Structure formats: C-alpha cells, structure tokens
What does this fold into?
Amino acid sequence: MEPRLIWINLLVKLGVAAAVSSSLVRSVAFKSLLFREERSLLQKTYLVLWFSLPIMIGTWIRFSVNSFVAGDLSFETALLLGVIGGRWSGVLGGVLMALPALLHGEWATLPFGVLCGFIAGQLRTMALDKDDIWSFSPFIDLSIYRLIRRNLPTPRLFDWQIMFFTTIIALRFVQSQLARYFAHSIFSMDSGNLWVEVAIYAASAMAIGIELKIFNSVRIQIKLEEQERLLLHARMEALQNQINPHFLFNTLNSISSLVRFDPDTAREVISKLATILRRLLNSADSFVPLREEVEFIDNYLDIEVVRFGKDKLRVVKELAPDSLDVMVPSMLLQPLVENSIKHGLASKVEVGSIYLRSRLSDSGLVIEVEDDGVGMAATQMPEAGSTRGSGIGMANISERLQVLYGDTARMTIDSHEGKGTLVRIRLPLLQTAGAVPESFYEERSTTRR
It folds into this structure.
C-alpha cells in the first residue's frame, strides 16, 4: 500500500475509533456495563457484544471495499476489552472479532486475538489503581515524567501505563511478524518507510488512548453528577434538620411556661409533642403527601391552642380533596403556621384566625397560609416579587424550594399592617403516593447545571 494511502487510512482509523466510542457511550445500557468494577458472566458477555459487533462490521468492510482498512480495529478493541473487562472479556472479544477474518482465510487472526485479549486482561489484574486504566495516554513521555516524579520520594519502578504502552507496541510487532512469515494468514498494515511504520505503531496506541479518554470523560461526568446529587441530598437534610430544632426550641419554651402553674396542661402539651417527635424520628422522607403534612400541623396546632386558649386561636381549613395526595416537601407548613402565630397573632388582643387552603390549578399545587394578625409594615416586607421571607423558618423554606424545584416553585408574601399576612406557595405536581424517586433529584441536578 502506498505511504500516502496509509497516512489517510491512519487518520480515518483514529476518527473511526472516536466515532465508535462516542456512539457507544450514548447508550445508558452500555454505560451501566462499562463503568463497574465487578461484572457477572452475563454482563461481561453483553459488554463484549457491545464492543465486538461494530468492529466485526468494520472488518467485513475491509474485505468488501478495496484499500479501505481503517475500519478494522479488532487488534485495538481486543486489548481494550481485556483491560476494561478482564481476561474473559478480552478472550471472548478476540474470538468474535476474528470471525469475519477467519471466514476469509486469515486463520492466524483467531489465536492472535485471543492472545491480545488474555494479555490485556492479565495487565488489568496487575493494575494497583484501576484509575490508571482510564487515564491511559499514548504519549509515553508524560507517563515517564509521572514515573520519575512518583519515584523521587518513594522508589517504585513499575508503572502500569508504561507497561500497557509497551504491551501494545510489542503485540503490534508480533502482528506484523506473523503477517511477514505467514502471508495472508493475518491482516497487518505495514510499510517499508521508517516514519510511516512508526506512525502505524503510534496509531494503534492512540486509537486505544482516544477511546479510553472518551470513556473516562463520560465516567468523570457521571461521578460529578452523582456527587452533585449526594450534595443536594446533604443540603436538603441540613435544611430540614435546621427546622426541627427551631420548632422544638419554641415548643419547649411553651411547656416550661406551663409546668409551674398548670401541670395538667403541660402534660397534655408534652403528649402532643411526643406524637410530633415520633413522626419526625420515624420518617426520613424528604417528601410526603399533603394529607400527612396537614395531620402533622393538626398536632402542632393542638399544642398552640392549648398554649393560647381556644378563645384566642381559631383554625379554618379549606383543603381541596384532590390536592391532599400531592407530594410536598416534609415540614413545609409548620414554619409558616409558626410564623403566623408568633409574628401575626401572639401580640393580638382579640381572637385571631389562621386559614389553611390548598387547591390544584393549571400551574400545579397552590398552598396558602393566611392570618388576620398584625401584619408587617412596608419596611419589613421583602422586595416585590421576592421569595425570601424574614426569620429562620421563612428563609429556610425559600431555600428548600430553590434546592428542590429551582425556578418551577414560588413563594410570595402579601402583608398589610394591621390586617394580616398571606403566604402563597405554588409547587409543580408530584402526584404519587410513594417516595419521590431518585430520578427527581437527578433531573434537578441536570437542571441546575
């Protein structure tokens, strides 16, 4: 083959390697097989099929189209399967990818493919750090530089990446010698020009390096998304845990004020508090049906009614039945109700009322907590259109809504001094009776990216 034609095929070969690997990682099923350290025999077989079928087509094209040999990546893919999947995957892949060549009389392709897969699988077992596999680079000078740096403080002569690079070059040499001494028994792209021959060897290492780099970039992206999802969970737990001590502190203050002059009422409040704490301790869900949230508020209000007196606090509920099964963030209503009592009704002399409303609209679930208390002056109000409220509880809810829903949820505060305050929350629908699926957090993670 002419040197000019070889150069063209080498460039196309690298493009084919990049295109095949980029296409494979678009599949969720393939990624689930690729990015795991332990695989069953069936999973290894599926992984081999994912890799082998495109390469078998490329080998068949080599026999069908004259002078087009760039699609034959069976040598590189056998090595790739070995270092990723182990000896079994490498050997099975070498056998499958050798079948088209075997049918066309290239008998040495089969034992050579098995040898490549086995040796690469053996190299995998020698890797002390499996990240070395994914970070493999065909640029040997960088590996030598890293080896020297690692050996300066603590000498360690073995470097897996240099060993893998040497293995690729050695096996490529074996392939060329087989083609030389057993003509037409195995395919090998060779040239009498020294620089072209060097480029042929380098292309094999670069094709493997390109595929591993593409796989590793997707692997790193998946890890980052998982870390962001875990961070989102941790942030939500921190916010939710911020509410519970705040609520507990205020309730214990109420109990302490009753213990001395009204022990019976104090015992009743403690019993109600025990019911609330039992619910908090037994439920780790971030989302609950609105029905459960209202039941929790009933227990909380029972405590507040005992504290303020039935003639001082009145609760009116206007809840649409079809809204009660919608999933809402746990401990969503309690800080709103507490805020209404503490800042709206506590200083009011006459009877005060709290209105709890819920309904479904075209935009989702609407929840309102309104009181007819003292309200807030204009200087106390948040900025127009702002979802940030004053106080720990209100600010906490605003941040939780932002974390969970982003811009799809909104909380508005409408208050008039001397007339009362209305807090309205609009949430997207999560119409399920079970726990919110993990995919919800994954979708939120992608949205926030």
Confidence is low (pLDDT under 50) at residues 381-389, 432-449. Residues 3-224 form one domain.
